[in-house]
Amino acid sequence: xxxxxxxxxxxxxxxxxxxxxxxxxxxxxxxxxxxxxxxxxxxxxxxxxxxxxxxxxxxxxxxxxxxxxxxxxxxxxxxxxxxxxxxxxxxxxxxxxxxxxxxxxxxxxxxxxxxxxxxxxxxxxxxxxxxxxxxxxxxxxxxxxxxxxxxxxxxxxxxxxxxxxxxxxxxxxxxxxxxxxxxx
Length: 184
Prior knowledge:
Elements: H1 11-14, E1 25-28, H2 42-57, E2 62-66, H3 68-76, E3 80-83, E4 89-95, H4 99-105, E5 117-123, E6 125-129, E7 134-136, E8 143-146, E9 151-154, H5 162-170
Parallel strand pairs: 1-2, 2-9
Antiparallel strand pairs: 3-6, 4-5, 7-8, 8-9
Helix pairs in contact: 2-3
């Protein structure tokens, strides 16, 4: 959208959140704060309250959650977050649409394949139980859609291009790649 205006807010640093009704769309992006904890930092509590308030009182403001934002929206609205029982997800993960996902995205589920699409993922936690009125569009609750509010969330990174993935690896501090060993 060439005429779109983008404003960035950093509640962890500046403790400021926008007036939600001023925006057509609010995107909650990645982060590392552990949303499985019972006690949350004040900035996280404030962000979750902002999500709930925006969903309930700003019908013209859509919400997108990506990665940590996916988990934050789920928790804010009453869902449950857990450490991924399948282990950390780092890389491109194959996913299958649910019946509702096929209806939403279009197309059909190819029964001859165990994959409908693939998405880059970098996370160790996931949505164990979606909040009420959220329906999974893909397996493992990795993409959720609210039945009433304008909310869609993605555990993976649909925005991540090959260039972005390479930049993350090249900026690595040793967590993703062991620089002491040759990479093949």
